[in-house]
Amino acid sequence: MSRRLLVVCYFYPPLGGGGVHRVLGFTRHLPRYGWECTVVCAGAEDYWVKDETLVAAVPLATEVIRVPGGSGLSAWLGLARAAGREATGRRSTRTFGMLRRLSDWWLIPDSYVGWAARAARAASQRLARGDIDALLSSSPPDSVHLVALSALRRFPVPWVADFRDPWVGLSFRAPPTAWHRTRQTRLERAVLETADVVSVASRLHAEQIEARSHASGRSRRVVHLPNGFEPEPAVESEPPDDPHFTLVFTGTASQMPDLEVFLEAVHDVLATRSEARRRLRARLVGPYDAGYRDRATALGLNGIVEFLGPRPHGEARMWQRRADGLLLWKPRGEGYRTMVPGKLYEYLDAGRPVLALLDPAEEAAALVRRAGGTVLPPGERTPLAAAIERAYLAWKVGERPRPKRPDWLEDHTRPKLAQRLGELLDGLTRRNP
């Protein structure tokens, strides 16, 4: 007999970007483990990246309740549409940064708090109808957990608070004042102490929560559920006579200073290997801040470094499989040590060499090394240029290494992760009949 999980998230198809795939994977595969899903999510036009192809992955039996508007982002997009500007997957670094700084002052925990108030009403109405056995809220944005807190006051059911990343306002951004920090801390504590289970995407984040729990004397159940990947059947790779040595990055290129380091490293390689201008190509597949493209132009890399913008997820996976090297980096900072990008698992599944700019002590770096990839220090263009040049010269003499897909990756497929979540939910509902 199937039970029903109420899922609260902001990002769900047809919205695109990296934040969609974790929850989509849960809702896609949970039904085979006895859990049908109802999803409360943002409106279909409420993000600057869309991927209509992902809608086909949503099971027909999944109930989707869309709550449009209410967020700072949806308001900005509405104004842009009114001015005749459609979302293109490219945004102004300066404008976006200014809006984010303003939201840090006035909107707590984040600019989605207005949407959360609307979503809480929708979630409460759905809970009032009955047949909901458990609830999962998945962040970012952290406002989704406030939806759960509000709805569960009237309709208590077992609750899993799921974190793709740590609490954003504390880990990735410095609160503008001590008052803001206190307020963010209290909201995070309320979520961590009220949820029946806290699930997280990285082991380091789990350890951090457990350490704080031990220090406070309030035990919490913390479960590590990695981001994982959707397995795909093997396909043919790029034809062997392809004239280009191709480096590929997939995902959102925003707040990533190492992308500029990469552009400078490519410039250095071309300065010493002039013939590589005809042969070396870098393709950045996904939405991006316009400032990076401007930097590539300033370095004379037009036609060599291509910003392809948002592409359907299946096309991004194709570029991964065809690459001669897959590029990995992420924003820098103490808070980002916990981040294990979901694309890393896809990269390893693609069977192509991975070149990562990561702190060697980080969890993501350990996974890259464990799979035979190369980890270089972030922020340093010289070792990166040397690594690119070595790979390019090897390619010129016909070498195309194909790393073996690591055996341990099988435990990170989304069907396996959904099975673990289903077992977790089964245990919670048995304890809370």
Account of the protein in words:
Keywords: Transferase. One of its GO terms (molecular function) is glycosyltransferase activity. It comes from Eiseniibacteriota bacterium. This is Glycosyltransferase family 4 protein. It is a single chain. With 433 residues, this protein is α/β, with parallel strands linked by helices. The chain folds into 2 domains: 3-228 and 413-431, 3-Layer(aba) Sandwich (Rossmann fold); 245-409, Glycogen Phosphorylase B (Rossmann fold), CATH 3.40.50.2000. The chain has 16 helices and 15 strands. The strands form 3 sheets. A 7-stranded parallel β-sheet has the order 3-2-1-5-6-7-8, with helices on both faces. A 6-stranded parallel β-sheet has the order 12-10-9-13-14-15, with helices on both faces. Helix 14 links the parallel strand 14 and strand 15 (374-376). Helix 9 crosses helix 15 (381-396). The model has no long low-confidence stretch (mean pLDDT 89).
Beta-strand residue fraction:
15-25%
Number of domains: 2
- Mean of pLDDT: 89
**Which runs of at least 5 residues are low in confidence (pLDDT < 50)?**
none
